[in-house]
């Protein structure tokens, strides 16, 4: 490589690492795996070492990634929260040991190491005065972080008061357990929210919420791993400080192995690697630290990393195995996912017998066939994946796989819409997506059954008190009261809410059915043309395509949904239960807002936004969430924001609440 080629590659690597670091640290939305990022950083570090004339202070090899998020106060760290130098080979660890040993021998200091798990989370500092928790901050760029004290106070294992009245600053890692992460993504799937890529980014996103009440809902935990500063107690060794922090009441990293030499440290790293599947939390390596604090002081630090610690990253392990079969699983939203059934093989400490193949496009892209020899990879604690096929081992016995046309659970049609990669079951009574169907049916914008939340639905299903949506209308107070301690009042309120929902307008029921692409707005448009459920169920595709705001894809989805036997069966059961099947039609309705579009912004004194929107729609108008040239009026209350600014820029009429009330008299 010439000097020019080296400089060009260094510049390219800096742009790439800056971009991926921003996605990882600032946006909590990584685009590549940790291993891919580590390899880019390793290449950059090696090139900069070979061509030191091209080293720049802007390079991520010279500073910690991460910036202070807007909305948080800045905190200057008294002691920098540095990063660690990553290594991927034990020869690098032995080279590290040689450098450290030389300094230790020169200063006649016994050398020991402490090996700990490198927890995959978000690094924070916690500050205590006289034993009281006074401030907490993110690492940020290592020198300046974000004040997240209120958010950290929501974490159960962060003590608000220590067992001794000491002044101390400690460093820890906030994380989400494997079980907690799985539960979070399960709930997000039900809510049709984007899934978190990994537990680290779920923890970071949760901890950097501007509203601490949102943080409190997330299953965050913490392990403390370092004393940053102590004005009260002086230590001679790191291991001693860990034991002292446990005595104070901190939740200290449970994996901390004191080692007499580097070979013991390597054994400890291997042991952690073998056991990491059994850990309740994710790790992305092992940390090797010099134990003696005086030796640490002598060794010192670089710009970004200490010279007394290093991080060993476990390399991704690949194994060959047999793809025995491909079966399809149905998720809670109806997504049908192909799963690889594998001849069991041990990869990175765990036995893999199946893994997701994501979707039909993934199978085609990898050219997978049943009976193939395939390569499985598992990097760290991520989900195992099929990375390729050993095509030279094909013998003609392999079989092509085809995605099903019917749901493997309930037999309803399986539909893949144009432009989507996912195949979906559209059966409303499918047991695989029953929880999601009931949750949506009861939600505020659908049937609005107050009290029928996530945990109550789970309990009703677990106890087999309901087996489908219509069963809700057969529940009694006696059925429900056992779900809560002293639950009679709760049960009565829930049954009243269920019965009250029978009288809802037809548009709510249509929205509650969970038809693809049909929300509140679409449901209301449908009831303007079809005044009864029977009319809608009997509508042709041509009838549906003529409905306002209904395009070809939506019309097709509605038509296919109502032509499923499951849908017809469910509607009939709801009719028998007494659920209203007719739209509220007012003869000679006042259409004073016909053809007008309103945008609401700010807080109104006499109406909620939903109430004001309902009035506008009652008079034939539409409500939009964004201002455009097509907007007729912007109804602005107190603390109106950017929508008001945009309305003024576009010359859109802005009305006050008083003017709105004049218009609706």
What's the short story on this structure?
The protein is built from 24 helices and 22 strands.
Secondary-structure blueprint of this entry?
Layout: H1 3-26, H2 34-50, E1 74-76, E2 86-87, H3 90-106, E3 113-119, E4 122-129, E5 132-138, E6 144-146, H4 149-152, E7 168-176, H5 178-190, H6 199-207, H7 212-215, E8 220-230, H8 238-248, E9 256-259, H9 262-275, E10 283-290, H10 293-299, E11 309-312, E12 317-330, E13 335-347, E14 350-356, H11 360-366, E15 373-378, E16 385-389, E17 414-415, E18 423-425, H12 434-442, H13 454-462, H14 477-480, H15 488-501, H16 506-512, H17 520-529, H18 533-537, H19 541-545, H20 552-562, H21 565-577, E19 597-601, H22 609-618, E20 622-624, E21 633-636, H23 642-650, E22 653-655, H24 657-663
Question: Could you list some keywords that capture this structure?
Answer:
alpha+beta, D-amino Acid Aminotransferase, Chain A, domain 1, 22 strands, 665 residues, OB fold (Dihydrolipoamide Acetyltransferase, E2P), five-stranded mixed sheet, 24 helices, Helix Hairpins, seven-stranded antiparallel sheet
